[in-house]
Amino acid sequence: MSLPTTRRVVTGHNNSGKSIIESDATLTPANPLDPAGSLPTGIIPGFTNLFKTTGFPATNVQGEWFDPHGKKIGLVDQDGVVARIVDFPAVGETPDGVNVTHRTQSVDFGIVLKGTITMVLDDGSETVFKEGDVCVQRGTDHAWKNVSTENCRMFFVLVPSVPIKDAATGTDFEITPTGHLEDEEHIRLAR
């Protein structure tokens, strides 16, 4: 699968306090299941991790910063905001065991940059998003599926949240385990 690259420019300050460009790089989508950041294949989406803040408010606005590109940092990090691009391959009617129903403890802003994609909620409802559409995902159980014939590219900003409660029981909803998307060394370095 051929996926587009992304140019990421990160700014900062020099020793005189002047604004500078610290990094200007072309990033390639990576396989989120592979700690080495190889290219995705088949129905595996491509993750381009752009940036992760450290703390609230962000403390990595000056000096050193961790580059999350190609790293397994999980979907959400309770210690910072994650920005990434996800390229969803067109799967048509092929069974998709990768893009499964999941819930994160976060508010996610998803913007469709190119293509179309369907959001499936646990009540069975399906909503189609097209280029320019925005989804504000507030900790709901959902899945993304691309049943079109073209790849779909989305930009996500994931903001960690307080636990989400089930109104019927008063208990916290269970968060979907994402250990397969995490590497302890990468997460440690990102904090």
Could you explain how this protein is built, in words?
This is Cupin type-2 domain-containing protein. Residues 100-157 form the Cupin type-2 domain. It holds the Pfam family Cupin_2. Residues 1-34 are annotated as: Disordered. With 191 residues, the chain is mainly beta. It has a single domain (6-190), classed as Jelly Rolls (Sandwich), CATH 2.60.120. Helix content is 4%, strand content 36%. The strands form three sheets. The chain has a five-stranded antiparallel beta sheet, with no helix packed on it. Strands 7-6-9 form a three-stranded antiparallel beta sheet, with no helix packed on it. It has a two-stranded antiparallel ribbon with strand order 1-2. A hairpin with a 4-residue loop joins strand 6 (116-121) and strand 7. The longest helix is centred in the last third of the chain and has 7 residues, at 184-190. It is globular, with a radius of gyration of 17 Å. The two termini are 32 Å apart.
Strand order of the largest sheet: 3-4-10-5-8
Number of helices: 1
Based on DSSP secondary structure assignment, what is the total number of beta strands? 10
Based on Cα principal axes, name the global outline: globular
CATH superfamily: Jelly Rolls
Helical residues, percent: under 10%
Structural class, by secondary structure, is: mainly beta
Work out the radius of gyration: 17 Å
Measure the end-to-end span.
32 Å
SSE pattern, N- to C-terminal: EEEEEEEEEEH
- CATH top-level class: Mainly Beta
Features of the shown structure:
five-stranded antiparallel sheet; 191 residues; Cupin type-2 domain-containing protein; RmlC-like_jellyroll; 4% helix; RmlC_Cupin_sf; Jelly Rolls; mainly beta; three-stranded antiparallel sheet; single chain
